[in-house]
Amino acid sequence: QVQLVESGGGLVQAGGSLRLSCVASGSIFRINDMGWYRQSPGKQRDLVATITSRGTTNYVDSVKGRFTISRDNAKNTVYLEMNSLKPDDTAVYYCNAAIATAQSFLRINDYWGQGTQVTVSS
């Protein structure tokens, strides 16, 4: 079984910073792409940032220049450094990872964390 656990969410004033972490654990053979998504009430879950196993990153336009995604492959961990936070960034942030398990290494499945709340006050 594979589990993703996010941490680092909280309440911050506009202009502040937060660093989210997500640790993958379980019977992991390989982790390919990892990413962060966010969802506000009444809206669909949207991509925030992704990072490949080699470190290539991609960001949604609204966070470019403010957020930085990174990963530590040895720790099976992905991070999201969020700076210059805005009230519009308020959402539940979810960690995502494409993982091949040790039992079924030929099949890569997407796994999701439970989400962590980020609230940015004006």
Distance between the termini: 40 Å
Number of DSSP-assigned strands? 11
Classify the beta-strand content into a percent band: over 45%
* Secondary-structure element order, N to C: EEEEEEEEEEE
Percent in helix:
under 10%
Number of contiguous helices: 0
Poorly predicted segments: none
The residue-averaged pLDDT reads: 96
Question: Would you give an account of this structure?
Answer:
The protein is mainly β and 122 residues long. It is built from no helices and eleven strands. Strands 2, 4, 5, 6, 9, 10 and 11 form a seven-stranded mixed β-sheet that branches. β9 and β10 form a beta hairpin. The radius of gyration is 14 Å and the shape is elongated. The mean pLDDT is 96.
Give a summary of the structure in a few sentences.
This protein has 122 residues and is mostly beta strands. The protein has strands at residues 2-7, 10-13, 18-26, 28-39, 46-51, 57-59, 67-72, 77-82, 91-101, 108-112, 116-121. A hairpin with a 5-residue loop joins strand 5 (46-51) and strand 6 (57-59).
